Sequence to fold (477 residues):
Amino acid sequence: MKKEEEKPEEEVVHLRREIGLLSAVSFIIGTVVGSGIFIAPKGVLMNSGSVGLSLLVWALSGVLSLFGALCYAELGTSFTKSGGHYTYLLETLGPLPAFLRLWAEFLFIRPAVASYVSLAFGRYVVEPFFEPCAAPVALIKLVSILGVTFVVAVNCWSVTMASRTQVTLTFIKMFALVLIIVPGVMALAKGKTENFQNGFELKAITLDRIPLAFYNGLYAYGGWFYLNFVTEEVINPNRNIPLAIICSMVTVTVFYVLVNVAYYTMMTPVELLQSDAVAVTFANRALQGMSSVIPILVALSCLGALNGGFFGAPRMLFVGAREGHWPPIFSMIHIRRQTPLPAVLFLYPLVVLMLTRTEIYELINFASFSRWFFIALATLGMLIHRYRFPLHPRPFKVPLFIAVTFTVVCFFIVGLSLYSDPWNTGRSCALTLTGVPVYYVTIYRYLLPTRLRRIFDYCCRQLQVLLEVAQQEVKTY
Fold:
């Protein structure tokens, strides 16, 4: 211990606090704003039935996401470990729910989400070169894999480089949103309001479709929880986590509503519903001289969302391994790069494998059930922890009304998916529950045959030498 204390700071192996307020805001915005707002706002319109109600859904989805983000701001300042959902479930509800969240995240949630975003990146890079013909699927997948490889390489190389990449890509994607908003607002100021006439057509509203409209809206806002995955790397987390969450979610909500207003100034609801790439259709109408730029900006936006996911998600695996719920090799970091190299690399083959599958969009649908179920459990755990430990220090405390509202709505979304899509929801539940026997094998691994444990330990040691990684030498939480 004395030797470690005498080491120069730059030589001590640990994850450093390098994420300031700007990086934190960019990290959240850059992960939330992916492909959704550019290519799929029609899901909200389709299920809401009118222009006015769809804009209301976008605004309320932003408010609800802000509620969830504020709950996670309290959790992030109450429990100073990285790991996000996993850590909060572990601290409030116990190890089994936490392990199941970890299991579901790396078995299908993270590979499916990353594959979806990388395919959107590949499509927007390749398709402009083949218009008006269809682009080869194999080429789209190849470019998608190259995008994933680039993001993995950046996150393995340097935390600072990954953070700077995220800041740069966030500014680019905000520029893309401004490029859409400005001509839309200008057209609106000139009196182009015909698509907003009779905006609230109540005849088209059906109670069974309104929740689905919110489901689509909330999907576009997904990603507000990623900063909590890297709590131990945030400078002054008690101040910067709540501040970054509030700034980023308010900004995203305002921009999302304005972008949708801009869409409706140039497209009728029917035209919007017929478009598979709303931003491109908009650019062809409003930005004729710059229409070729939009696919590039959308591709870079997808790359930013992909980078944010690969930056945050491996920290959950890192913390899970540190707690003994995953092989210890994944709790190690590179001795020179100071990055969680094994945890980042572990995701890479899973995403590449998922990219080769044809059922990727189906996987996205049933991955959403587990995601929302565990988010609801985490905020429920926060409420239970408040009741059981009222004296626990909470530097940031969200109002009870906000926490209860968000938790109830999350469970409502989960219940709705059980009703509307029992097949995919059932499969998601079954896949998550396959983690139960794995959990008990992990906890009682000392009961495994000695020979099997020796082989496993030998493989871990060889991987440690090959990857040049070691356990952290200082406590960062």
About this structure: Residues 169 and 323 are 33 Å apart (CA to CA).
